[in-house]
Amino acid sequence: MHISDGVLSPMVIAVGFGITLVLLVITLWWNRNDGNVAEQIPKLSVMTGAFFVASLIHIPVPPTSVHLILNGLMGVVLGLLAYPAIFIGLILQALLFQHGGITTIGINSVIMGIPALISYGIFKVGYRKGIPPAIIGAISGGFAIFLAVIFLATALITTGEEFIGIAKLVTISHIPIIIIEAVITGSVVAFLVKVKPELLPIDVEVTKDEDN
Amino acid sequence: MEYPEIDRYASLKSPIHQFDPRAKIITFSILIFSFVFVNNLTIAGMNLFFTFVLLLISRLPLNFVFNRIKWVFLFVLPFLIIMPFTVSGSELASIAGIKMTYEGFMYGSLIVLRAIAAVTLVLTMLGTMRFDTTIKALYMLKIPGLFIQMLMFTYRYIFVFLSDFLSMWKAMSSKGFKLRSNIYTLSILGNLIGMLIVKSYERAENVYHSMISKGYTGNQKTLVKFNMATKDYALTIVLIGIAILPHVCSMVI
């Protein structure tokens, strides 16, 4: 899912960095209303570390195994701050594990981060409409990967028409991952609703009243 | 799952190890960006050769480096295998009636050479200094403090959560849980990840409160001082020259 160095054209790389820069500024500025961003940094970083570790889990899909991406779940739990979290996660993945690359940090953040922001929106709207959390969680998780694959294919195709064949194969090979991420995100959301509902963008007050 | 010890061999001695961290980050980044956008197969090959020379100078154990390059190679290998069949152009060979093209093969090879050159540079850069030195150098290069701190905290908590995760994993396997490809496995994994997130959230609250109570304001202070010596400047100029060279060459050719 992460594109490594040496694949994309300078144009796509530059656009990726441009969009990422703008979105980082917007997402961090937006959260300025909820208090000092600098003071929130330790919290956000600890959560980013947890998601980083969770994304190292490999799930056997015969004949190979895939690792989790969890960008949909990051969107649901972290909200707009999912974008900077994904950005940092990708930098560390490139530096520590050589997944992805240095020049592709910008475009990879776009590929993972924008779907995360959208699935945050989907979850919020869907929950308000009364859809059970597990189901709307699964939808957000699956949709985030689906959208990421579309972005990935677009990035490849805009690099050159040589990549059309590869882009098609990449898209098809991600179908099982969409299903896995949907099931995992759904079950994590169901778990969090029971155990720690304040982590989700849902009406916490109601749940607290029920507890009392 | 293993700990991401990228800086395991940072204590060795070599000209690359002694290169000023700030200059190292700048020159290697320029080299990476330069080598990644080369469009000529011969030049890409020469670039790869040069990165291996740098790697040999750095004296990093080769199996440590190749173990990590392997993953990038596995990622770009499909490009080399698939592109000859999907890119149109002149015929190179045909297997069972399916045409392989020369252009596709060239393009695939170019991607593999560029990717491996880039990752070799990254490993030579990061492997030759402690990761906290890398982050401090980035801070001194005026990368916004917000990102530096997120990198630093996240890096440290990755180790904490890895050991958390491994102990939860041990608990689960001792109760007979095995990874299979079915829905049950996925929903149990969902609970595991949920628990990891809950734990991290509670830890985040504690960390936040303890840091605030110690007067944390979000501004970083660092005690490490770096000194640029003449040889650092010389090496910087040489490496930047080498970074520019391929693009001058391809313009002339």
Characterise this structure.
The complex is a heterodimer of chains A (about 210) and B (about 250). Chain A is built from 9 helices and 2 strands. By secondary structure, chain A is mainly α. Chain A has a single domain, classed as Orthogonal Bundle (Arp2/3 complex 21 kDa subunit ARPC3), CATH 1.10.1760.20. A two-stranded antiparallel ribbon of chain A has the order 1-2. In chain A, β1 and β2 (about 65) form a beta hairpin. Chain A is globular and about 50 Å long. Chain B has a two-stranded antiparallel ribbon. Chain B is flat. Chain B folds into 2 domains: about 15-140 and about 225-250, no CATH class; about 145-215, no CATH class. In chain B, β1 (about 90-95) and β2 form a beta hairpin. Chain B has helices at about 15-20, 20-35, 40-60, 60-85, 100-125, 130-140, 145-175, 185-215, 230-250, and strands spanning about 90-95, 100.
How are the strands of the biggest sheet of chain B laid out side by side? 1-2
Task: Return residue spans of chain B where pLDDT drops below 50 for at least 5 consecutive residues.
Answer: none
Beta-strand content of chain B: under 5%
Our count of helices of chain A gives 9
Number of strands of chain A: 2
Summarize the structure.
The complex is a heterodimer of chains A (212) and B (253). With 212 residues, chain A is mainly α. Chain A has a single domain, classed as Arp2/3 complex 21 kDa subunit ARPC3.
Question: Which structural traits does this protein have?
Answer:
heterodimer, A: 212 residues, 2 strands, B: 253 residues, mainly alpha, 2 domains, two-stranded antiparallel ribbon, flat
SSE layout and pairing:
The complex is a heterodimer of chains A (212) and B (253).
Chain A: H1 10-30, H2 37-54, E1 58-61, E2 64-67, H3 71-78, H4 82-97, H5 105-128, H6 133-159, H7 164-173, H8 175-195, H9 204-211
Antiparallel strand pairs in A: 1-2
Chain B: H1 15-18, H2 21-36, H3 41-58, H4 62-86, E1 91-95, E2 98-101, H5 102-127, H6 131-140, H7 145-174, H8 183-213, H9 230-252
Antiparallel strand pairs in B: 1-2
